User: What shape does this take?
Amino acid sequence: MRMSEAMDEGLRSELQKQGIWVTSMQELYNWGRKNSIWPLQFGLACCAIEMIATAASRYDIARFGGEVFRPSPRQADLMIVAGTVTKKMAPQIVRLYNQMPDPKYVIAMGACAISGGPFKQGYNVLKGIDRYIPVDVYIPGCPPRPEALLHAFMELQRKIDEQKLTGQGKAEFLKESTLSEYPVPEFGEHDLKPPANPNLFHPPAIERG
Amino acid sequence: MNPSPYFFLIIFIGVALLFPVMPLVLAWLWRRFFQPPKPGVAKNATYECGVESLGDAQIQFQSQFYLYCIIFLIFDVESIFLVPFAVAFTALPIGAFVAILIFLLLLLEGLVWAWGKGLLTWAR
Assistant: This one.
């Protein structure tokens, strides 16, 4: 399927110089996808203000094809978790993620969405949304500037561009076996049940010398 | 041989059909060969801002409620009249003062009527 495997890069660039553009189905598909990432319209805390600034005219996320913030998960490709995820809010976010059609991507924006941020020691804030849903790009910052969000957007575009349609290393969302929905946590007595999705959340072990 | 002068209409109809149908067919083919369908409980559920939907969508409103609306409308208009009256109060001639008093009296009469009829108690 991939043209560049059937045709070597030298010949391709030679043809390009003569004004003949050779492409493949996969490249065309990914080109279309990466330039029209529609984010889900929701903000949780102060990071959302930066997200709004990114969407507004000064930073203008429309340059990257991401200006169409959708008010429904049915039409969204990208979930920007912009802000502090409280334990009260976490089940709804996982449910919204589940309601998005495949392929779907997640950007964890800001220190809170990554790890709980300044509220990590508190009792009511989720210590990172990656405990329940798979995150594609993490942005540190409190809050990250619009440039940082744009950078994350470009990283996501790069990731989408590298996804393969067929063969070895096929994109996860195209596999029959990959689940589209993740279990929604429930409210427990002291914490969410389960506190993290054990199939998804593998934090790196900290080695102390 | 000249084609019929209406021949272009057939071409137009053909293009008009092909234009919307072709993307749909392409999308269907794409789904058939590349994208496995992944339905789920949450995905097929009604979207209600992320929470599970509560109750029925078809609620009945009591028809008695319209009386509240009418009373509200009347007193809403009254307040609009009262504000300029209060602002220009000292400069008003005696005739205008009497006119607004009659206006207030009429509305007050309506309120007494509604009260006496028991409309201000909440219907259960």
In short: The longest helix of chain B spans residues 7-33. Chain B has a mean pLDDT of 86. Chain B is about 60% helix and 0% strand. Chain B touches chain A through 14 residues (CB under 8 Å).
